Amino acid sequence: MSFYQHGLFYSTSTGKTEEVADLIQEKIGSAAPQDIADVDVSSLASYDGLIVGAPTWNTGADSERSGTSWDDVLGNIAGLDLKGKPVAVFGLGDSIGYGEYFCDAMEELYSSFKASGAKMVGHWPADGYQHEDSKALLGDGSFCGLPLDQDNEDDKTEERIEGWVAQLKNEGF
Ligand SMILES: Cc1cc2nc3c(=O)[nH]c(=O)nc-3n(C[C@H](O)[C@H](O)[C@H](O)COP(=O)(O)O)c2cc1C
């Protein structure tokens, strides 16, 4: 029996990231997903590990790409002390309609949590996606987290989550 407590936090505009958060919860067995809008971000420090997810909107902007409540709290998160805590990012996007900007907002979550000292886990190979480009690419052929495309590839989502969750467990999550 594990006494680790993992938190799962998301934001959404049209509900797709919330649906995916529910599926991730089912596969990993974390606590119920919470909308980051309903949370005092200082409480994030009380978890043993975090999974955090956002959609990408605000195409073409330099920052605040999620278009959701994350945009208001990422600065505060960067200032928290999450030293050594495993944190994994997922993102929702449209790899065809917005193929130059696929899941860009993942990069903003990644950078903010990384600045807090968190141990970033859950990088994911970019093979098998249809995007042209993304800020969330790390330069080594991987994304900084798990991108999911409910607009074009929802048939791949469950398998991707299962693979990612298995990887997180191998990475000490
Ligand atoms: C106006 C608009 C802008 C969008 N911009 C992007 C984008 O820049 N990059 C991307 O990957 N997806 C983009 N998308 C797709 C959404 O991220 C995608 O539909 C996502 O699943 C929505 O998640 P949500 O329902 O949780 O808000 C955009 C969608 C709309 C309608």
Automatic annotation (TrEMBL):
Co-factor requirement: FMN
Pfam families, per database record: Flavodoxin_1
InterPro entries, per database record: Flavodoxin, Flavodoxin/NO_synth, Flavodoxin_CS, Flavodoxin_lc, Flavoprotein-like_sf
Single GO term (MF): FMN binding
Top-level taxon of origin: Eukaryota
Key word Cell division present: no
The UniProt record lists the keyword Cytoplasm: no
Domain Flavodoxin-like: 6-169
This protein's UniProt keywords: Electron transport, Flavoprotein, FMN, Transport
NCBIfam families (alphabetical): flav_long, PRK09267.1-4, PRK09267.1-5
UniProt record similarity statement: Belongs to the flavodoxin family.
Descriptive protein name: Flavodoxin IsiB
Species of the source: Coccomyxa subellipsoidea (strain C-169)
